[in-house]
Amino acid sequence: MAQRKKIRVSEEGRIIAKNLKTLRECAGFSQSDLAAFLGVTYQQVQKYETAVNRLPLQTLPTLCDVLGVPVEA
Q1: How many CB atoms lie within 10 A of CB 51?
Q2: Across the chain, what does the average pLDDT equal?
Q3: What pTM did the predictor assign?
C-alpha cells in the first residue's frame, strides 16, 4: 500500500485558506459558485480553502472583484 505524502502548509497558507473560506461564505457563495467565477472545479476551491493547493496569483484580481474586497499590495 502506497504511503500518502504529508503536505506541509505554512502559517500564511493556512491564513489565506481560512480567509478565503470566510469571505466566500460572507458573500453567500457556495464553492461551486466561486469555482464558476474562477473557471475551476468546486474541488479546486475546496483545495484552496484547506490549503492543499495554493491559490494562483493570477486569480487574485478576479477573486477580489467577485468577493468585493480590495487588492492590496
Answers
A1: 20
A2: 90
A3: 0.83
